[in-house]
Amino acid sequence: MSQQPIRRFAEDYLVIWVDGNIDIANEDCQNTMEQLRAVVNQVQRCTTAEQCIQQLVDNEEKISFIISSSAIGQHLVPDIHDMETLNAIFIYYGDEQQHQLWAQNWPKIKGVHTTIKHICEKLAMTIKKCNQNNVSVSIVSLNEGGSSKELDQLEPTFMYSQIFKEILLDMEHGQQAVQELVAYCQEQYHGNVTETRVIEEFEQTYQPFNAIWWYTRECFAYKMLNRALRTLDGDIIIRMGFFLCDIHRQIEILHKMQQAFTTYRKTKMDLFLSITFYPPVQIAIFRGLLPPLT
Q1: Looking at residue 104, what is its pLDDT?
Q2: Domains, the chain, ranges and CATH?
Q3: Which of 166, 150, 165 is nearest to 280 (CA)?
Q4: In sequence order, what DSSP letters do the residues of 113-169 get, joined into one string?
Q5: Which of the listed residues 10, 253, 266, 294 has the most CB atoms within 10 Å of its CB?
């Protein structure tokens, strides 16, 4: 099987599906791909252990997850288990009890599964934990005069992001900006049935007043923006500039309405981040969620 072309993606994660029987012309394989891409957009298919290892090497900047058949997995896992960017391994197919014996010796193996649906559920939970771990918050306390020795120790990336934020807020963002982002996302998520539907919904319903709602929805908007802010990916930040500005302005409105300002990052009612600001705290630096705001 020839290697699939590598291109730049807007998300953090990579799934590598390894199975000697993969046949993309087969309807079951197509359904498996669709289910996997509903969780992680970038899914690479491999039919040998060697191809899988090469994919891990070629994508060493990404956090990777392996879904492997039990037959290949027994030979593959010892060679890849200690790779730093490999987060988790899911064994697919085979007799569950038979393969639990060897799988339990490798901590990164997150179970032996007989259905792709179960793997997707476990994969989604694992990614949610990764997202939580990627969030860092630095709090800088100011005295009554508005100064702090800690300000001199702020990372340069914070200062750069502040300048970036001011530039974005000064830019004019019309409806054309929405259309350009939609076109870019359609290219990025080409063939991803689940996300394509959401992108179409975004195109039809997005308005400045629902920016925070879109950001807190578990979909392409959060995935792309979260990665771009954490890595300071200027290209995607500019493409999503109107979205960032709308979120920023909504937060400013909420801030004026409340003495204490609470922000939430949640899916349905599953709250995993709650930060409340009270004096004398004046600056909170988020890396991986919203851009630094003062």
Answers
A1: 80
A2: 13-133 (3.40.50.10140), 136-287 (no CATH)
A3: 150
A4: ES-HHHHHHHHHHHHHHHHHHH-EEEEEE--TTS--GGGGG--HHHHHHHHHHHHHH
A5: 10
